[in-house]
């Protein structure tokens, strides 16, 4: 049986955030995950990454999403996670869960996935 405090930790985490390429973000927005707060402090739960975006902007978005109390899951394209791999690998909190996903042009490589590597270490592989 789960402890009575565990539902409290995830109670307000009602959104999925995404950092991805245009096709991935568009598909997820069409699926209904998009959320934008009202002005004056507009915040979004997604970031579209293209070839012109700088790595520090990706890092900033990652940090903002993992520190928000309303995000339960952060989806990030694996090829984008590679750009900030040290940041993704050092993130160990349970919430939000950070999941690496494939994109249309970049297939999923389980050897690069930080969560899968951690699981393999736990099982002694």
TrEMBL record:
Any one GO cellular component localisation term in the record: proton-transporting V-type ATPase, V1 domain
InterPro entries, per database record: ATPase_V1-cplx_f_g_su, ATPase_V1-cplx_fsu_euk, ATPase_V1_fsu_sf
GO MF annotations, alphabetized: proton-transporting ATPase activity, rotational mechanism
Alphabetically ordered keywords of this record: Hydrogen ion transport, Ion transport, Membrane, Transport, Vacuole
Superkingdom classification of source: Eukaryota
Subcellular location: Vacuole membrane
Record flagged with keyword Acetylation: no
Bilayer topology: Peripheral membrane protein
SUPFAM superfamilies cross-referenced by the UniProt entry: AtpF-like (SSF159468)
NCBIfam families: V_ATP_synt_F
Subunit structure: V-ATPase is a heteromultimeric enzyme composed of a peripheral catalytic V1 complex (components A to H) attached to an integral membrane V0 proton pore complex (components: a, c, c', c'', d, e, f and VOA1).
Family per similarity comment: Belongs to the V-ATPase F subunit family.
Biological role: Subunit of the V1 complex of vacuolar(H+)-ATPase (V-ATPase), a multisubunit enzyme composed of a peripheral complex (V1) that hydrolyzes ATP and a membrane integral complex (V0) that translocates protons. V-ATPase is responsible for acidifying and maintaining the pH of intracellular compartments.
Name of this protein: V-type proton ATPase subunit F
Source organism per UniProt: Tuber melanosporum (strain Mel28)
